């Protein structure tokens, strides 16, 4: 087996070496990209190069997923075959496509696909569990992890399958010598597959020509023991363990075959007991030697990934020291100097994956820092040549705990473009600022943009703006673009008129990684010359250098046009000598102004040649300046004119306005006026309003009319308003004329108004007629009705009545204690509304006004035997009316007397929560009102009970415990309410706790543990809790009744509950007052009973057969024993029905049941045993399910031989000695006594106790079985009250 493994792994090493060599040669043949420094140097030599601004490298990131489902989905493993990327992890769909835990991504089409097969008409998608490792070889994809794949034909495929992409079929890992498919007892975390040179498949199903090396937490492979590391040979013997060479004590996470050495990393603490092999170990495939890697991991507990570049081995995981070197989760081992180094790193999170590409090492994990100075979010890379670290842009982020679990590397052509990609898989939601889910790529290609294609304006375009917008195709490797515009095709520095070398496509650092062209646009920011031919070109600027210039394109700028400013086209001008304004052209000094009534400018009324050079210097004659010309003679009123301007220079025409502009002079009469305020149909307008309207630009005088009818037959005002301006042309457009009458208008009157304009040409049209209504007058004086003046015996809340008056919107009431109405008022109410709103009078047949009345009852109590004066006035929006005549009334002593309180006493404490309030009867009281409050001013009440017919009252409202309350009582009769009693205070007694809310077990829950934890919510003020558990609904007989529980949970010990039984439980809280109410009752059913646990503390003591057996029996050469034991800790949830005693001779292996009646006693006497023979005894506890397991080390009984009683204590040498695995130890006792016989290792560790307790006088022989012990020398010691004897024996295996 050992030879086979060495040959197989050696072959794998050879294959992997050839593959790596091929990859390295392929990568070395690629062209070397420019470095950043080289690119910057080239760019700085270009015009404007010193201003270059490089964007963030986040554009190298590309999202590869838009969604991934199944809880906390993740990708754990990546394998690449061509442009296909196979991923595994935990997910149910990617980008909406169902795929179970494994899928494939096509780098060219950027499409995800599931891995599917149809077997026996059953459609299979992926695997039914997590995938931790994946590899590809030939047409096969090897998938491994924690799943159990149920194959429709082969059955259970545990932890590993292979998928053939040609046949689209899943196969298991098993040959004729294997008893099961795959692995057992754990999972597979890493796999390595390699072709076997010169071999062919040798079994009927045409299996592949390769072997697979696997590592993980499994303990079996192919049905045989193979802890943590094994390999599968399709052309050999199938599954083969490696534990004869490498004995691990924990999981393997990564393996590497380097030449003729096997490097293994994981969570193990040692290999083959070789020091310094924790976490990482090397096995020589030439001599099978196990080699420590610099002392291994000395602090920490696992290595996740290993990579080797040259003679340097790199490891990543979760550890803090290697050998004697402190590190943080990453280290390098120099295999020449045999030295560890941290490389000045300080990773603040776990390193999960390493990937070496040439001299670059990519590192992925959960970290956000590499060194104290370098921030790198989950992905960083190391240049192993100069030992410099770099971050991958802003890295991997998003999600609660972003992490990279695995890295892959692709180098090749994608859609005709060379791509070098680091592929990242893990658990995250963002890469480089882009939204993605658990899978993304980082482009390591040389970023030098290709030659660009220009788009717009087309080559040889004419008539372009002097600030044209230029566009060209973008390139995904370009961060910035460099644009030049020149007057020649040579693009000499003196000919370049415009240049920008930092044009961005998007915001810095957010350039999308795309392979199709998208337009980039740039608008020239400074004016070019008119009538000029220009040439332009563009090139891209990437991370690693500058692209080639585009082809040169040309364009011509527009011929200059004169821009007319004023009069604006289709406008109306007021002055008849308007200002003609236009923008001057650059270097144009002569202009021809033409004004005509004809659109074709024939028969001009103005035809003027204007030379502007006498008025402006040549430097001022440029574009965007204006020139104004004002004619000497006026134009005609109300006439439509057309005008145009042409520019000349040296008698040559350079530009003219596009089309003649049209304007109209002012007509002879004003336009119709538009009114402003007061608005049409408005009410409540003041009696002295200001009238406003919008100015008509041709008006010099307005006529204003106001009437009480729409036809203006009853004109109230007829006014002329003359505008005080110099001329019509001086009037501003937003001027608002206004007019205010000199005298008030009538109240409550409907008016109509209108305005028209006038100028020297005549009267304009009247405006529309608007109407409004003026305010009401203030209300008339009010007449009071009731109570009559001087009335007595009024209630403390009297009802006051008065007549409504016309124009009153509401009423104002005052009550004083003096007729002068001075000092503080007793009562004021300022908004009392009547019944009819506007309260206009109704007239009877004699034309007398009839008014409705207003009744108002005070909402506050007045004092008894007090005289009050009151008056009322009406009010509206206009103002207040005059006060009514004053009246008085007196509150009579007809209400009940003040109540005298009796119980509770003032300041009384420990008052019941439902107290009986008591008071003395009050004179004239028909009923009573009780108020109880927690505030002294009774602004809020707890109890407000009315119509109480007795002087003792218990409210239906229960009070809170330990609370201070205030209470008062007043008498009530048909005259009103008496005064409140004096306020008393009292404090209630403490209340019992509130009802408990129980939480666990849930109601009607099944399969509840026999040792459940009962929990409930804490109750405020509770000092302890009381738990009851019963089979009965009325809790008549409780199996658990625990009081004094001080927490809100209690765990039940074994033995209290029975299996398969329905129980009910409840909880109540307790404080110093007593118990609160029981909680609601919940029911639950326990799990099924099991067999009992093993009995404990078995003690065997030989007794005299004569004392036990009847005298009629023979006792010659027979022995009897007394056996005692402690019941098991757990009876299995079912009562123990019997203890079965079994025995065997110490040198035999077959157990015999000692026949006796069923008994639950824990002491028994057994008889009928041969003298001089050692017996082993065991006791099995039995219940309704079955018997307990045997005890691990049953005691051996020592029989008294038929020899004479010895005269002293002796301890003989054991026999045989040395031995394997059993021996006998003999000792003698002159008298009975307490004896202890023990065995210890040479390090002082107690191995077993052979005898412990009372032993009779005589010779004793004890058997020892050391089959589970290691070879070595041991001590055995005999201790009595009088002596301690020691001897040695040797165990050899």
Number of helices: 3
Main sheet summary: 7 strands, mixed
Euclidean distance between termini CA atoms: 23 Å
| Mean residue pLDDT | 84
Count of β-strands? 108
Strand content: over 45%
How big is the Rg?
54 Å
Q: What general form does the structure show?
A: flat
**Content-based structural category:** mainly beta
Low-confidence stretches: 14-55, 197-206, 507-516, 725-733, 837-845, 1106-1116
Helical content stands at under 10%
Descriptive notes:
The protein has 1293 residues and is mainly beta. Helix content is 3%, strand content 46%. It contains 3 helices and 108 strands. Strands 11, 12, 13, 14, 15, 18 and 19 form a 7-stranded mixed β-sheet that branches. It is flat and about 160 Å long. The two termini are 23 Å apart.
Task: Set down the secondary structure blueprint.
Layout: H1 2-28, H2 36-44, E1 61-63, E2 68-69, E3 74-81, E4 84-90, E5 93-94, E6 97-98, E7 102-106, E8 111-114, E9 116-119, E10 122-125, E11 131-137, E12 140-151, E13 155-164, E14 169-171, E15 181-184, E16 188-195, E17 210-216, E18 220-221, E19 224-225, E20 229-233, E21 238-241, E22 252-258, E23 261-266, E24 280-284, E25 290-292, E26 297-309, E27 312-322, E28 325-326, E29 330-334, E30 339-341, E31 351-357, E32 360-365, E33 379-383, E34 388-391, E35 396-397, E36 403-414, E37 417-427, E38 430-431, E39 434-435, E40 439-443, E41 454-456, E42 461-464, E43 469-473, E44 480-486, E45 496-504, E46 519-523, E47 533-542, E48 545-546, E49 553-557, E50 563-566, E51 571-573, E52 580-583, E53 590-596, E54 606-611, E55 626-629, E56 640-649, E57 652-656, E58 661-665, E59 674-677, E60 682-685, E61 691-694, E62 701-707, E63 715-722, E64 738-739, E65 750-759, E66 762-763, E67 770-774, E68 784-786, E69 791-794, E70 799-803, E71 810-816, E72 827-832, E73 842-843, E74 849-850, E75 853-857, E76 867-875, E77 887-891, E78 900-903, ...
Parallel strand pairs: 13-15, 42-49, 51-58, 60-67, 69-77, 79-86, 88-94
Antiparallel strand pairs: 1-40, 2-5, 3-4, 4-7, 5-6, 7-8, 9-10, 11-12, 12-13, 13-14, 15-18, 16-17, 17-20, 18-19, 20-21, 22-23, 23-24, 24-25, 26-27, 27-28, 27-29, 29-30, 31-32, 32-33, 33-34, 35-38, 36-37, 37-40, 38-39, 41-43, 43-46, 44-45, 44-47, 47-48, 47-49, 50-52, 52-55, 53-54, 53-56, 56-57, ...
